[in-house]
Amino acid sequence: MQIVKKLDVPAPFLYDKIIDSVLFDIRKQTGKNVTKKQLNNFEYVKEYSKSSKAKIKIEKHIENQSYHFRTSTTRNDFLVQYEIQPIDDKSCEVIYHEEMKSFGTMQKLNDMVVGTLLGFLKKRQFKKMLEMIESSY
Questions:
Q1: What mean pLDDT is predicted for residues 60-85?
Q2: I need a labelling partner for 120 at 20 to 30 A (CA). Which of 2, 14, 111, 113 fits?
Q3: Is the pTM of this model over 0.70?
């Protein structure tokens, strides 16, 4: 899935909103206070429930430009990429890309069916989140 959207916020503002959320999640999951400079190749385990955990690795982090992370479980591997491109001092374009690789035939089939059904809702929810960020500026 890929979403490209122009926002009426400066690129650094959008970047800060994304990274603040990342730093909060890391602190909540690990108890560590990590800085932006420590994000490249940072790994941690996120617990979704007592029986569901995932390893998260930040693969690329360029201030005000890029944030990529990979979430790995025993069932699938999920890559998310944010690319932020300034248009001018007051606006930017965000390119959000995600891809999932499932392990096992049944998991692939399940993810394909669920992905088809939920893809539209997920896109709509993501665009709504971007609009909320934009309205908070």
A1: 94
A2: 14
A3: yes
